[in-house]
């Protein structure tokens, strides 16, 4: 597969496909579970805990640690389920969603918005 076409990178699905393919080919973990959670919630909005967990490669125990840390850091918010109040749903905080929107709209490169929320190292 040739990755030179920028149009593939403009969509989140295209970018995730490329990264997943590279992970498989290189036999390396390139996408963190934190990124999987954030990317899923950015694309899909509020999601029940079980569904969100299924869309990451994290174990159940690790998933719980990840969402707890992201909640403590103000990245995620928790809501009661729409149909069943016993079901916990996660979503991105308004601040994080707005920051991602701004970064994507401006074409900012690098990891600036990840660094701002403590999710990565500075370039």
Briefly characterize the structure.
With 123 residues, the chain is mainly alpha-helical. It has seven helices and three strands, in the order H-H-H-E-H-H-E-E-H-H.
Secondary-structure blueprint:
Layout (H helix, E strand, L loop, with lengths): L5 H4 L2 H15 L6 H12 L2 E2 H6 L5 H13 L3 E5 L7 E5 L1 H13 L5 H5 L7
Antiparallel strand pairs: 1-3, 2-3
Structure description:
The chain has helices at 6-9, 12-26, 33-44, 49-54, 60-72, 94-106, 112-116, and strands spanning 47-48, 76-80, 88-92. It has 123 residues and is mainly α. It folds into two domains: 1-30, no CATH class; 32-116, Orthogonal Bundle (Arc Repressor Mutant, subunit A). Strands 1-3-2 form a three-stranded antiparallel sheet. The longest helix has 15 residues, at 12-26. The two termini are 28 Å apart. Residues 1-10 and 113-123 have low confidence and may be disordered.
Index terms:
disordered N terminus; disordered C terminus; 123 residues; 55% helix; Arc Repressor Mutant, subunit A; mainly alpha; 2 domains
Shape: globular
Elements, N to C (H/E): HHHEHHEEHH
Number of strands: 3
> What fraction of residues sit in β-strands?
5-15%
* Architecture (CATH level 2) name of the largest domain: Orthogonal Bundle
Tell me the Rg in angstroms.
15 Å
Uncertain ranges: 1-10, 113-123
Mean pLDDT: 78
Overall tally of domains: 2
What is the CATH superfamily label of the largest domain? Winged helix-like DNA-binding domain superfamily/Winged helix DNA-binding domain
């Amino acid at each position: 597969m040739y990755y030179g076409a920028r149009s593939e990178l403009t969509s989140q699905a295209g970018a995730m496909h490329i990264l997943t393919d590279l992970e498989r080919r290189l036999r390396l973990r390139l996408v963190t579970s934190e990124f999987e959670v954030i990317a899923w919630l950015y694309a899909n909005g509020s999601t029940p805990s079980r569904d969100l967990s299924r869309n990451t490669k994290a174990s159940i125990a690790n998933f719980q640690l990840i969402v707890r840390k992201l909640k403590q850091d103000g990245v995620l918010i928790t809501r009661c389920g729409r149909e069943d109040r016993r079901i916990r749903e996660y979503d991105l905080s308004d601040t994080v969603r707005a920051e991602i929107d701004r970064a994507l709209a401006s074409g900012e490169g690098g990891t600036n918005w990840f660094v701002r929320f403590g999710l990565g190292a500075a370039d």
